[in-house]
Amino acid sequence: MSEIALVTGANKGLGHEIARQLAERGMTVYLGARDETRGREAVAAIGTGDVRFVRLDVTDPVSVDDAVRTIGAECGRLDVLVNNAGIAGEIGTEVLAITADQLRATYEVNVLGVVTVTSACVPLLRKSENGRIVNMSSRLGSLTALSTPDSRQRSRGALAYSSSKAALNVLTLLYAEALREDGIQVNAATPGRVPTDINAATPWRGDRTLADGAVAPVHLATLAPGTMTGQFRGPGTDESPGW
Predict the structure, then answer these.
(1) Which candidate in 30, 107, 161, 175 is catalytic?
(2) 42, 102, 155, 190: which has the highest count of C-beta atoms within 10 A?
């Protein structure tokens, strides 16, 4: 049987490209999306390999449990989890204007959603001979970058998004340690400056392609057993922005 992967937030953008590339590599890919119509259209658009829609809203534990139950019933295990779903609703808002409600909404998806999905998937990942978790992070969550005076990341001031990705980096490190004995590799990836729905209207949307942005997460999703865990990679396979 081919390896089994789940990619959240995969009906468009970077998640869709990651799902496509994993399918090209022969994996059975569960394309997670909140909306069934868009999800099934996204599966059809990939047009290669074994890609299956599964309804999954990372903020809805019931839908997460249902999705994981479906994967378990059809495949019996999960080899790769890519926690890609994320939002950045406050982009362009001044730091001092960000409200607690905006942080709460962002954390619900970018942090709590990752916890919900990861917790639900661990039992299936433990049944894999080479379980891997890839968390989609960002240089905007790098304390190394944010603590550098005059850094581009520091000047952008995306308070909710940046702090949620910093929290995600902590989750990555702690999950990596907690799952080390199970042989499950847990790493974080940044795609670099790729134009997506999140940054398309900003001056720093970047000019990298979706294929470029998928390099680091796909690399981490296809690691051989015992290669690396608790690492932050991207946008190239050997680059690290620093935690």
Answers:
(1) 161
(2) 190
